[in-house]
Structure formats: C-alpha cells, structure tokens
Amino acid sequence: AVTRTFSIIKPDATRRNLTGAVTKKLEDAGLRVVASKRIQMTKEQAEGFYAVHKERPFFNDLVSFMISGPVVVQVLEGEDAVKANRDVMGATNPADAAEGTIRKEFAESIEANSVHGSDSDENAKIEIDFFFNEDEIVG
Ligand code: CMP
C-alpha cells in the first residue's frame, strides 16, 4: 500500500550542503517528497521529538546536535514508505550501513548520521503530526 513516513535531514548534512543529494537518494528509492521545510529546531522541539530516548546516555548530546544547525523535515510518500525509507537510510551506525545507503555514503558518525526516518507506521503519523499540519502536505 502507498503510505507515508517522516524524514529529517540532519544538521551534519545541511551543513555540508547535502540536502539535494540526500533527497535524490530518497527519490531514487521510490519515495516522493509531499511536504518539506527547512527549520532551526528549538531545544524544546528536539527534546519533545526524541522524548522516547530521554533516559539514554546519548540524549543530551543528541539534542545539542539536532539544534546545532538547520534541519529539513519532510513527509515522504510511497509504496511501503517506512520500509523503503529505512532500507535506503541504512543502519543507524554508518560503520554498519550497507553499500549504497545514505548513511554509508554521507554519515559522519552514529550521532551525525545525516538522516532520521520513522520506524513504524504508527510513529510516522506521530512524527508527521509533530511538525506538519495536514494542509502543508500535498500529495
Ligand atoms: P535517529 O534515527 O534520529 O534516532 C535517535 C538518534 O540518536 C539516532 O538516529 C542517532 O543519530 C542518535 N544516537 C547517538 N548515539 C546513539 C547510540 N549509541 N545508539 C543509537 N542512536 C544514537
């Protein structure tokens, strides 16, 4: 089925002017950008978005990193979008990411790993709603 997922192009990628290169990989994987905006996340937004990780040892560093520069938040649509996006992103740690994936090609470290993508349809809906109104999504 055609579904939606949520993606973030992270500050390490926007800093290196890779917004287009990352988006091309997403599009080549069969995903369509149906909403997109470049934002500077606030600390409160980053803490809220990553609330599920707040007990993790890397939480504070993660929040600092995510507000260290602009990000591009996107809604992606396509056949089985969550899986298609996760496949093209590659493993969280670029050292483990498969050849041809975004993180293999572009990520700097497990933290500065260039992209975020939702891990389930349920979380995709929550994450899309966190950053977008329905009228900002044009399929
Ligand atoms: P993301 O998919 O955005 O979800 C949580 C993020 O935490 C993850 O990608 C990484 O960028 C970051 N992170 C930093 N350190 C770790 C770690 N040790 N394990 C998992 N994620 C980490």
Please tell me about this protein's structure.
By secondary structure, the chain is an alpha+beta fold. The chain contains 7 helices and 4 strands. A 4-stranded antiparallel beta sheet has the order 2-3-1-4, sandwiched between helices. 35% of the residues are buried. The model has no long low-confidence stretch (mean pLDDT 98). Bound molecules: adenosine-3',5'-cyclic-monophosphate. The site of adenosine-3',5'-cyclic-monophosphate has 8 residues, from loops.
Could you say which structural class the secondary elements and strand pairing correspond to? Answer: alpha+beta
How far is it from the N-terminal to the C-terminal residue, by CA?
15 Å
Oligomer: single chain
How much is the average pLDDT? 98
Number of helices: 7
Helix/strand order, N-terminal first = EHHEHHEHHEH
Beta fraction of the residues?
15-25%
Shape: globular
Percent range of helical residues: 25-40%
Main sheet: strands, sense, barrel: 4 strands, antiparallel
Q: Which strand order do you get reading across the main beta sheet? A: 2-3-1-4
Poorly predicted runs = none
Q: Rg to the nearest angstrom?
A: 14 Å
- Give the cofactors and ligands: adenosine-3',5'-cyclic-monophosphate
Count of distinct strands:
4
